[in-house]
Amino acid sequence: FRQALGFQEEDCVVGTLCFLRSWKGVSTLLQAAKLLEATPHLKWLIVGSGISEKYFHQEWKRLGLENKVIFTGHLTP
Q1: In this structure, what DSSP letter does residue 11 have?
Q2: pTM of the model
Q3: What residues contact 69, with CB distance under 8 A and at least 6 apart?
């Protein structure tokens, strides 16, 4: 999974796996990614989909995190 997403062995991956809803803390995660974007080997991941997905993608773009945070969408185990 890490290799498929381009993560290296030394990378620390921070993220969430949830139905994307406003109260799930995804905005807080995006804000943290922005604050810590210069931290080496820190990678950000959002797994899931939901009714707030479009809003979070807009926030992601507004914060300029397209190259810092990966949205995978819904994943089936």
Answers
A1: P
A2: 0.92
A3: 30, 33, 44, 45, 46, 60
Per DSSP, the three-state class of 17 is: strand
| Residue 55 burial (10 A CB sphere; 0-12, 13-18, 19+) | middle
Contacts 24+ apart (CB under 8 A), 72-77: 72/5, 72/45, 72/46, 72/47, 72/48, 73/47, 73/48, 73/49, 74/48, 74/49, 75/47
Q: What span, in angstroms and rounded, lies between the C-alpha atoms of 41 and 27? A: 21
CA-CA-CA-CA torsion sign (6, 27, 34, 59): positive
What are the tens digits of pLDDT across the range 40-60? Answer: 999 999 999 999 999 999 999
